[in-house]
């Protein structure tokens, strides 16, 4: 017997319809790429998204065709996403921080037909355009008056492009399993691989992610997504904010501490989200200027491990609750957030910080397990670590065009490539990426734990730990440090600071000081480059 409920496909544009009807006047601010701060609301965003959809359909875009966006977080980018999805096409976000060759690779692999881009990227695109044959037209996200002179094929200002239609359009009726968006993983090994989100997976992911034990959004919140929309679906905020009716503030292209602080203050932002590097720029700014964060209630930090010292400073000095989050492009992307259950809600001080260094627990619709290399499940005791595997309706089951082959285990779990522990209450803690973990004498050392600890030293701005070949132990940890400007510290200062806080055999064998640590396009420490640089490094302990 079948249920007798309505057949109501889960389509992304229904989120925007809801926002326009229920929260139509909710304010949306953008620091525009042109400079001034501009304002819109969900009602207007929907109207303009309908024009985007109508225009794309008129330009001959068919269901499933890909439309690239190379753009900062702005309201135009938001309406473009909904317009693209609403005519059955697929938004494909491109990370401008990728190497030029990778951008060429993914645009060609995705066979994008139209490119919507901020004017910032015109010089880059002019250079790449001869290698992007699938792009039929470039739409620049600005108005006619500010359209730069360019050789890009069919270049038109976005405002003129949507200005040629009236918005009298009905969202296309689609299967909820139809593709809605795509995003390539940054491909630290091999070529980037395309993850394809469906309307259904995006809607389900937004529903669970906006709930109170995840992002906890509501119409009473003002949300600023600092995490770029080109980074793993913008951590779902372009879906969760309108779904919940929250007000939005988009930072555009300016992510420096002063610009972010100005928006947090001026628009009384209550909730924001981004990677640790952005928050350390904000902290530096606050420390230099004596600035405060009177309105901000919660800050979601993920993408790489949030250092304990950062959590402590934001909470103790600025009164902002830090929420550690973990996820990945293949998971739409949110996989877990660290919000207390009653069992741990009473924790205070150091014990609370211990909990907060964990990446948290998954919401409904994400299942997790940890296994050994043979695929056997490991206990949830907070100590045993193993490969972290996940499954759920917003987790990838394959990559675009079958790249990478079969990616699920026989039970349908996807191997995240992370190594983690899970404690008795279900809180997961990433100890490392499988390829970064340091294998010393058959035991594993977590590079993340060492980095976290080193960064707690007052003179340290950034720390990275890699395994370096060792004749006796296979690998031993090497600590690479960037000092804060004007600060000094020696190897023995740093190691002395770490002693007693971790097992003795985890203490790095050496410390090197550098001016800069390389980062990937998504703001993570580029361990592959570091391993390459220090491949022939001889540890002082190697002669023992
Ligand atoms: P990339 O393309 O750079 O891999 P993703 O955003 O998909 O971009 O990266 C996902 C990975 O980032 C995870 O598998 C994990 O290794 C790392 N990561 C994300 N959040 C955290 C976190 N809070 N702590 C530690 N690592 C994290």
Detailed description of the structure:
By secondary structure, this protein is an alpha/beta fold. It has helices spanning 13-22, 42-58, 75-86, 100-110, 122-128, 158-163, 199-209, 237-244, 257-266, 276-289, 308-318, 349-356, 447-454, 491-498, 527-533; strands at 27-31, 37-41, 66-70, 90-93, 114-117, 137-140, 156-157, 179-184, 194-198, 222-225, 247-250, 271-274, 298-301, 321-327, 334-337, 367-371, 386-391, 414-422, 428-433, 438-440, 443-445, 460-470, 474-483, 510-513. Among the domains are: 13-32 and 39-197, ANL, N-terminal domain (Rossmann fold, 3-Layer(aba) Sandwich); 359-433, Roll (Luciferase, domain 3); 438-543, ANL, C-terminal domain (GMP Synthetase, Chain A, domain 3, 2-Layer Sandwich), CATH 3.30.300.30. It contains 15 helices and 24 strands. The strands form five sheets. Strands 2-1-11-10-12-13-14-15 form an eight-stranded mixed beta sheet, with helices on both faces. The chain is globular and about 75 Å long. The termini are far apart. The mean pLDDT is 95. The site of adenosine-5'-diphosphate (ADP) has 22 residues, from strand 14, strand 18 and strand 19.
Helix content: 25-40%
Q: Number of helical runs? A: 15
Reported CATH architecture of the domain at 13-32 and 39-197 = 3-Layer(aba) Sandwich
- Give the cofactors and ligands: adenosine-5'-diphosphate
Tell me the span between the first and last alpha carbons: 74 Å
Largest sheet: 8 strands, mixed
Q: What fold name stands as the CATH topology of the domain at 13-32 and 39-197?
A: Rossmann fold
Mean pLDDT: 95
Shape: globular
CATH top-level class of the domain at 13-32 and 39-197? Alpha Beta
Spatial strand order of the main sheet: 2-1-11-10-12-13-14-15
**Strand residue percentage:** 15-25%
Structural class: alpha/beta
pLDDT below 50 for ≥5 consecutive residues: which ranges?
Answer: none
* Quaternary assembly: single chain
The CATH superfamily of the domain at 13-32 and 39-197 appears as: ANL, N-terminal domain
Overall number of strands: 24
Rg calculated over all Cα atoms: 24 Å
């Amino acid at each position: 017997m079948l249920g007798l409920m309505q057949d109501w496909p889960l389509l992304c544009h229904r989120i925007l319809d809801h926002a326009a009807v229920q929260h139509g006047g909710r304010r949306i601010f953008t620091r525009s790429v042109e400079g001034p701060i501009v304002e819109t609301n969900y009602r207007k965003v929907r109207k303009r998204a309908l024009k985007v959809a109508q225009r794309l359909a008129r330009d001959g875009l068919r269901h499933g065709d890909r439309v690239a966006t190379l753009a900062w977080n702005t309201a135009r980018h938001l309406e473009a996403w909904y317009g693209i999805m609403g005519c059955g096409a697929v938004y494909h976000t491109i990370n401008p921080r990728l190497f030029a060759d990778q951008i060429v690779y993914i645009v060609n692999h995705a066979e994008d037909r139209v490119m919507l881009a901020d004017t910032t990227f015109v010089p880059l695109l002019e250079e790449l355009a001869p290698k992007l044959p699938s792009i039929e037209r470039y739409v620049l996200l600005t108005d006619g008056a500010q359209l730069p002179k360019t050789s890009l094929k069919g270049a038109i200002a976005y405002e003129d492009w949507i200005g040629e239609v009236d918005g009298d359009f009905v969202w296309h009726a689609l299967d909820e399993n139809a593709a809605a968006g795509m995003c390539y993983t940054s491909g630290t090994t091999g070529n980037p691989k395309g993850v394809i989100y469906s309307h259904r997976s995006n809607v389900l992911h937004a529903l669970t992610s906006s709930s109170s034990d995840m992002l906890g959004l509501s119409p009473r919140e003002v949300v600023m997504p600092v995490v770029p929309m080109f980074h793993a679906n913008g951590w779902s905020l372009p879906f969760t904010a309108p779904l919940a009716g929250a007000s939005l503030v988009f930072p555009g292209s300016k992510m420096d501490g002063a610009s972010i602080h100005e928006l947090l203050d001026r628009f009384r932002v209550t909730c924001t989200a981004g990677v640790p590097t952005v928050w350390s720029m904000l902290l530096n700014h606050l420390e230099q200027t004596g600035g405060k964060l009177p309105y901000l209630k919660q800050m979601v930090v993920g993408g790489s491990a949030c250092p304990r010292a950062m959590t402590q400073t934001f909470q103790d000095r600025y009164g902002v609750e830090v929420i550690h989050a973990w996820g990945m492009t293949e998971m739409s992307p949110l996989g877990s957030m660290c919000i207390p259950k009653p069992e741990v809600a009473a924790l205070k001080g150091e014990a609370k910080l211990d909990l907060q260094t964990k990446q948290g627990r998954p919401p409904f619709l994400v299942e997790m397990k940890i296994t050994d290399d043979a695929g056997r499940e490991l206990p949830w005791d907070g100590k045993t670590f193993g490969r972290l595997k996940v499954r759920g309706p917003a987790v990838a089951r394959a990559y675009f065009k079958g790249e990478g082959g079969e990616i699920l285990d026989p039970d349908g779990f996807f191997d995240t490539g992370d190594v983690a522990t899970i404690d008795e209450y279900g809180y997961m803690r990433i100890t490392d990426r499988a390829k970064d973990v340091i294998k010393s004498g058959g035991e594993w050392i977590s590079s993340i734990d060492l980095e976290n600890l080193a960064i707690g030293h007052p003179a340290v701005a950034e720390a990275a730990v890699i395994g370096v070949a060792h004749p006796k132990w296979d690998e031993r940890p090497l600590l690479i440090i960037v000092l804060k400007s004007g600060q000094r510290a020696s190897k023995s200062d740093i190691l002395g600071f770490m002693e007693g806080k971790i097992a003795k055999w985890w203490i790095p064998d050496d410390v090197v000081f550098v001016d800069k640590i390389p980062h990937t396009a998504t703001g993570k420490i580029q361990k592959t480059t570091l391993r390459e640089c220090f491949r022939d490094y001889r540890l002082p302990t190697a002669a023992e």
